[in-house]
Amino acid sequence: MKDVLGMSADEMHEVFKEWNNGPLDSYLIEITRDILAVKDEDGSPLVDKILDTAGQKGTGKWTAVSALDLGIPLTLIGEAVFSRCLSAIKEERVAASKVLNGPKPTFKGDKKQFLNDLQDALYASKVVSYAQGYALMAAAAKEYGWNLNYGGIALMWRGGCIIRSVFLSKIKDAFDAEPDLTNLLLTPFFKDVVEKAQAGWRNVVTTAIMNGIPTPAFATALNYFDGYRSERLPANLLQAQRDYFGAHTYERLDKPRGEFFHTNWTGRGGTTASSTYNV
User: Fold this and answer.
1) Which residues make Cβ contacts (< 8 Å) with residue 183, sequence separation at least 6?
2) What is the CA radius of gyration of the chain?
3) CA–CA gap between residue 203 and residue 186 (Å, rounded)
């Protein structure tokens, strides 16, 4: 909004105010609306005077570590944590800004439509974040023998939490309808939401990239969506590379799962395989 559309804090305040009256209604949208309206003593937006280095208490870090331990692609929270880490190296970024060049942001499209696209991108990315979070909880429940009430958890968050959001009731509905649901994106409601938001979501990420504006959460959420809906990913080449350099073996499409193979790719050396990596 600021760097591409050239919007002021007051203008952004009005947008967030409008968004909080719709499907994006949530605690974080609400407080962002309020923050953008606050002025410093000289009448300028206070938010513009705050140092751009984000702190953290470690919640996101241990969530990401848990996801890695359980093999769950919690890409959005992980990227959010790394974005905070990147913000923390302020002096290094200032020095880099004087050396590294990128495109100068320009916008020639329909501003109102782009704001609608931004709303779609934010909504879809939020859905992906919840989908990933629930996937992590399900994996943890399986690993540690927990009996989680997934719908009840959504209602608990509605009672007062930083991630409180109006569509948490839709999450409860989804698990009420299908207690063994594997991913929120597969439910009729959230599938419809994300597919309707897709065009705007892609436009925002593309526009940001072409203008040199980092949008780590939007982009990684979209990459997860595209990866999750892909019947076939290029991990076959990755497995071939792993087998080539470390004899880690691979599975074949034309053989049963759980049966591993090793190829002597160079025709030299022995045929001993290393330990397998079970997905």
Assistant:
1) 131, 134, 135, 228
2) 22
3) 23
Query: What 8-state DSSP symbol labels residue 24?
Result: T
11 — phi, psi (to 5°)?
-65, -40
Q: Measured between alpha carbons, how far is residue 204 from residues 32, 55, 149, 188 in Å?
A: 20, 27, 35, 24
Give 145's DSSP letter.
T
Query: What per-residue confidence (pLDDT) applies to 273?
Result: 62
Q: Report pLDDT digits (tens) over 120-162.
A: 999 999 999 999 999 999 999 999 999 999 999 988 887 766 6
| Domains of the chain (ranges, CATH numbers) | 51-228 (1.10.1040.10), 236-279 (1.20.5.320)
- Which residues make Cβ contacts (< 8 Å) with residue 80, sequence separation at least 6? 60, 216, 217
For 39-80, the pLDDT digits (tens) are 999 999 999 999 999 988 889 999 999 999 999 999 999 999
Judging by beta carbons within 10 Å of its beta carbon (0-12, 13-18, 19+), is residue 167 exposed, middle or buried? Answer: buried
What does pTM read for this prediction?
Answer: 0.91
